[in-house]
Design goal:
0% strand; mainly alpha; 382 residues; 71% helix
């Protein structure tokens, strides 16, 4: 009888119920909410499903992300090795390769003024950096947190790793990806606040056709210029432009298809689950995380507002030829932010088609966020 009792006792002691506290159960609830938003509401499911499931796993079985030093046999947990690829900046760079292979830079080439709109939306990053300093973050952690304002998850992970802020990588990545998923909820009120009905109804002229030569030269020229000025951006900008060159050159169709499909989705699985697994209850539920989430929202809101306000300025300078709504797409949440610009414009005039115009600032924002990360790395000598 004692043997049976001891065996049952050992089994019970190995269940998750015996080893978890209330923080873990809170995070399990959060994971379920994320899964609901992804599956039921369709908020960036390719990102939120793996992130939420990684969050679920680590809060049931914390050892799934344990380092080799923390285990009895010297072998780390499965997601520890995935997470190491995040810290080494490998997965974020590969994500950029896939994004480049899927992105058409034609709208940006056809309307170069989109670069300015993409740059204006990066204001949120630098305003959040100053606010983070005021809230007690040191320079490097403030920089890592502020990049959330670009609504670019891979860049947020990349910069946190480069600046040695691995302890903040989980909250930063979850906040960045969460705000990317919540673009359709967060942006429209800000866009409507800073624009008039008349401005939202502005119809823009059709974009000029872009030649194949222009599309081939674009990634080459951007790589040379940006990487000469900020060499530290080479892993992100270089991979983004390499993927785009695969797409546009027309002679490596197999590489383009692999980068934009199989490789991209494999990397999303590895990155998403490992990021989610960094959000154990103990590590995530604290004052620092709350500050990061608030700062991320402030940065994202400021970036959206700055893009719209700069769009209003260009609208005035061009005598009403630019719809200010496309400025909000400069936050680089591709292509969701551009779709939001289209949606808000169509609410005022169903015949207004802004999507392709908004894609210019949208893809410019991807480059702009990478450049902002490069500026921080240059400042801190990384």
């Amino acid at each position: 009888m004692s043997y049976v009792t001891e065996t049952l006792s050992r089994l019970l002691s190995q269940t998750a119920f015996a080893n978890l506290d209330y923080k873990n159960f809170i995070m399990i609830g959060v994971a379920c909410v994320f899964l609901y938003l992804a599956i039921k509401k369709g908020f960036e499911p390719l990102l939120l499903v793996p992130i939420a499931f990684g969050m679920l796993l680590v809060n049931i079985y914390p050892d799934i992300i344990a380092s080799p030093e923390e285990t009895s046999n010297g072998v780390g947990g499965l997601l520890y090795y995935f997470y190491t690829l995040d810290e080494w900046s490998i997965l974020p760079s590969l994500i950029f390769l896939g994004v480049g292979a899927m992105t058409d830079f034609g709208p940006l080439i056809a309307n170069p003024i989109s670069f300015l709109l993409g740059a204006a939306a990066q204001f949120g990053i630098f305003s959040a950096y100053l606010l983070a300093i005021l809230l007690g973050f040191n320079d490097q952690s403030a920089a890592a947190v502020s990049i959330i304002g670009g609504a670019d998850g891979p860049t947020s992970i990349f910069l946190a790793g480069k600046l040695g802020q691995s302890s903040l990588m989980g909250p930063i990545a979850v906040a960045a990806y969460s705000y990317m998923a919540l673009v359709p909820i967060i942006q429209p009120p800000i866009m409507k606040l800073f624009t008039t009905k008349k401005e939202r109804q502005i119809k823009m002229d059709n974009l000029r056709p872009v030649s194949k030569l222009e599309k081939i030269l674009f990634p080459i020229v951007v790589t040379i210029i940006v990487c000469l000025i900020l060499p530290t951006t080479a892993p992100l900008v270089g991979m983004l432009m390499l993927g785009n060159l695969f797409r546009e050159c027309g002679v490596v169709r197999q590489l383009s298809e692999t980068a934009s499909n199989a490789l991209m989705y494999i990397v999303v699985i590895l990155l998403g689950t490992s990021v989610g697994a960094s959000t154990s209850g103990e590590a995530f539920l604290n004052i620092t995380t709350i500050k990061i989430v608030i700062l991320g929202l402030v940065a994202f809101a400021f970036g959206t507002a700055a893009g719209v306000l700069f769009g209003k300025l260009l609208c005035h300078l061009t005598h009403g030829k630019i719809n200010p709504l496309i400025g909000s797409a400069g936050v680089s949440a591709v292509p969701m932010a551009a779709r939001v610009s289209q949606k808000v414009g169509a609410e005022e005039d169903p015949t207004n088609f802004l999507l392709m115009h908004a894609m210019g600032p949208n893809v410019a924002g991807v480059i702009g966020t990478a450049v902002a990360a490069g500026v921080f790395m240059a400042i801190f000598g990384v």
